[in-house]
Design goal:
Layout: H1 5-28, E1 33-38, H2 43-60, E2 66-72, H3 78-85, E3 90-92, H4 123-127, H5 137-151, E4 160-164, H6 169-174, H7 194-202, E5 206-209, E6 225-226, H8 235-244, E7 248-250, H9 257-261, E8 266-271, E9 284-287, E10 289-292, H10 301-308, H11 312-315, H12 318-323, E11 326-329, H13 333-348, H14 355-365, H15 384-389
Parallel strand pairs: 1-2, 2-3, 4-5, 4-7, 5-6, 7-8, 8-9
Antiparallel strand pairs: 10-11
């Protein structure tokens, strides 16, 4: 199908605008170094890449005589964008959408475009110093009022845990015209969190189920359980809740990255792909197991690494992973409950490793080569009980 005339016109305008802007930036360079930064559209990338830019400047310092101009289209979350605007100069306009497109073929060949990278191995950055984003006093009042009036939670005496299970509904809403099935391997079943939710409530905390658009409510009822995702969510509280919870219990999703930038501990469950680990402060995790589609048997991770290597084009594409004969297997209710108990032990100071536990942790990380894309996350422990029960799948020796 041929393109409509207005699409050709947009491409021509984008091209001419790109040439014009590049010339202007080059002329200004001796006196004023202007750097362009395009903000990502997806929630997790938007949060982490913006935050990592700020944190890296805090650690390494700014480029001399440089000014950074961030370009954003309609924000994925209004509150988060507003908080970034307190730290960054951000142009927010649909008129600048072409500016977020052409740098990939023009500005990327110059020094004027600054890439916002995030490679899932930024343990040092996320654990350095204090969180950089803060709520204003008025925002704190607003958040506390919402919690008390909408959820019955008084932060002066109550605490809460956020839980989130990724499904496909959000991406369908964000880009209904795109096939996002390659990401389905990251999905979880919220009902598998039931035993963990019951335990959290037994420990005296409220539980808030997060999510923007979800495929179903959680099959659980309790006065201390709030399915916020289907009752009362809004942009502001998405950020406020993630920043103020006791910890986050979640699969692999951008939603929980908000907690990471506020140094909120996270339990990563159903983590994927092979070798991925969260890298926030005080995080722990348990990965999905891997089944061989031809034999029906669970495969040792070391064998997977030997066969598939370290290629993210395979590991981050669920469809390609299946084509090669493998599928991910979600964590069970008991596994999620067990790692939740471990988090409470870690937070209250009663957690202990045996000598064998320490050895198993070491053996697990020996599976991955030093050049693995997530090896900074070696500092983040895999769940103790999970590793005990699955040592044949997750140790270096076959």
């Amino acid at each position: 199908m041929s393109k409509k005339p207005y699409l050709y016109l947009k491409e021509i305008i984008s091209f001419l605008f790109g040439i014009f802007l590049t010339v202007i930036l080059a002329v200004c360079e001796p006196f004023w170094r202007i750097r362009i930064v395009a903000m990502p559209k997806r929630f997790g990338e938007f949060a982490l890449r913006g935050y990592l830019f700020l944190k890296r400047q805090e650690i390494n310092g700014r480029e001399k005589r440089a000014s950074y101009i961030f370009i954003s289209g309609p924000p994925v979350n209004r509150q988060l964008l507003d908080m970034f605007k307190r730290k960054l100069f951000i142009i927010e306009s649909t008129n600048f959408i072409p500016l977020r497109i052409f740098p990939h073929w023009l500005l990327s060949k110059t020094r004027f475009l600054v890439a916002t990278s995030q490679n899932s191995n930024e343990y040092y950055e996320f654990n350095y110093g204090k969180p950089l984003l803060k709520f204003t006093p008025d925002e704190e009042k607003r958040g506390r009022k919402f919690l008390k009036e909408k959820m019955g939670i008084n932060l002066d005496k109550d605490c809460f845990v956020c839980v989130f299970a990724r499904d496909s509904e959000y991406l369908k809403f964000l880009a209904p015209e795109k096939d996002a099935s390659a990401n389905d391997y990251r999905n979880s079943n919220i009902d598998m969190y039931k035993k963990a939710v019951e335990f959290i409530i037994e420990k005296g905390a409220y539980v808030i189920r997060m999510g923007y658009i979800v495929d179903k409510p959680m099959n659980f009822k309790h006065e201390k359980f709030i399915d916020y995702s289907v009752t009362c969510r809004d942009d502001f509280m998405d950020i406020y809740l993630a920043a103020h919870c006791k910890f986050f219990l979640s699969g692999t999703s951008g939603m929980t990255d908000i907690g990471t930038i506020f140094h909120v501990p996270k339990i990563g469950v159903d983590t994927v792909p092979v070798g991925y680990a969260p890298c926030g402060k005080n995080d722990i995790y348990i990965p999905k197991k891997i089944r061989n589609l031809n034999t029906g048997q669970l495969e040792p991770v070391k064998l997977i690494m030997q066969q598939l290597g370290n290629d993210p084009r395979i590991l981050f594409d669920g469809n390609k992973f299946r084509e090669l004969g493998y599928e991910y297997v979600n964590n069970t209710e008991e596994e999620i409950l067990s790692v939740t108990k471990e988090m409470f032990e870690r937070l209250d100071g009663t957690f202990k490793y045996s000598d064998n536990d320490k050895l198993l942790q070491e053996q697990y990380y020996k599976i991955f080569p030093d050049n693995h894309w997530a090896m900074q996350a070696k500092k983040v422990p895999i769940g103790r009980d999970f590793l005990r029960e699955n040592s044949s799948l997750y140790t270096h020796t076959l």
